[in-house]
Amino acid sequence: MRYKKKQNRFVEQKKISQPSKIKTCGSTFKNPINKKAWELIKQSGCENLSIGGARLSEKHCNFFMNNGDASSKDIEMLIEKVREKVLHKTGIKLDLEIKIIGKK
What we know:
By secondary structure, this protein is α+β, with helices and mostly antiparallel strands. It has three helices and four strands; from the N terminus they run αβαβββα. The relative contact order is 0.20.
């Protein structure tokens, strides 16, 4: 029973900290060692970026969202823009947690 309460607490924390019931790519970048990808994104001034119908979630900036009319090219371009800005600002190259298939 103790484990069920702990599990429920984790589920509730996830609902508060991550977007749900919307179209996202999921968590986009892996966390570098001893760092959080979302913190690096925020430190680099990327949290309000958008390209076409793609943007970063206001709730968790490591989640890339489709506003309903984003193309895969919009999403991929936004991912690359964030990756470049984080590298320029922090010197850290973010690696994808998702797998991109197909062509741009």
